[in-house]
Amino acid sequence: MARSYELTRTTGETDISLRLNLDGEGKADIETGVPFMEHMLDLFAKHGQFDLSVKASGDIEVDAHHTTEDLGICIGQAVKEALGTKEGIKRYGNAFVPMDETLAQVVVDLSNRPHLEFRADFPSEKVGTFDTELVHEFFWKLALEARMNLHIIVHYGHNTHHIIEAIFKACARALDEATAIDPRIKGILSTKGLL
């Protein structure tokens, strides 16, 4: 059974078409008008072994806020829908990723109880033209719409680009682990029988 989902979301601020395959090969085709997010989503697809296609346009003449936020919403919705009933998935994922002087850790629980714990500070307010505060916005919307418990911890680092890149890679790897099918798991990995 293919674990993929395709959606289109149009608002007064953005227009996004997206396709996500959880069981992919790390292929990415990303056009958002926000170059830094394109770079991060390319890394996210590659390191999670997801196939991700995104075509987005937004009011980037104002800033990248709406586009970045809505990308989190759409990817989160696609993850949730692609998982279907969640039968047989590992549910939990944990990844440490170093990036030069930086070490980031991301822990995921696909619990159907959305929460973001974000323990990261960015030395710079911008990477190029990208506002670094939008990283939190993206991951909060991702966690909310995927209905996952998402913990992001940067243990140390001083280069803002490295910190954000390590977060995206660690998130991808943790999510890949959490969404993986384990043949030993019968049904849903919960004593409640439901996630």
UniProtKB/TrEMBL annotation:
Keywords: Amino-acid biosynthesis, Cytoplasm, Histidine biosynthesis, Lyase
UniProt xrefs under Gene3D superfamilies: Imidazole glycerol phosphate dehydratase, domain 1
EC number: 4.2.1.19
Top-level enzyme category: lyase
CDD domains, A to Z: IGPD (cd07914)
Major location (coarse): cytoplasm
Keyword presence, Protein transport: no
CC annotations in GO: cytoplasm
Reactions mediated catalytically: D-erythro-1-(imidazol-4-yl)glycerol 3-phosphate = 3-(imidazol-4-yl)-2-oxopropyl phosphate + H2O
Subcellular location: Cytoplasm
Pathway: Amino-acid biosynthesis; L-histidine biosynthesis; L-histidine from 5-phospho-alpha-D-ribose 1-diphosphate: step 6/9
KW Nucleotidyltransferase (keyword) present: no
GO biological process: L-histidine biosynthetic process
Molecular-function annotations in GO: imidazoleglycerol-phosphate dehydratase activity
Family membership: Belongs to the imidazoleglycerol-phosphate dehydratase family.
Record protein name field: Imidazoleglycerol-phosphate dehydratase
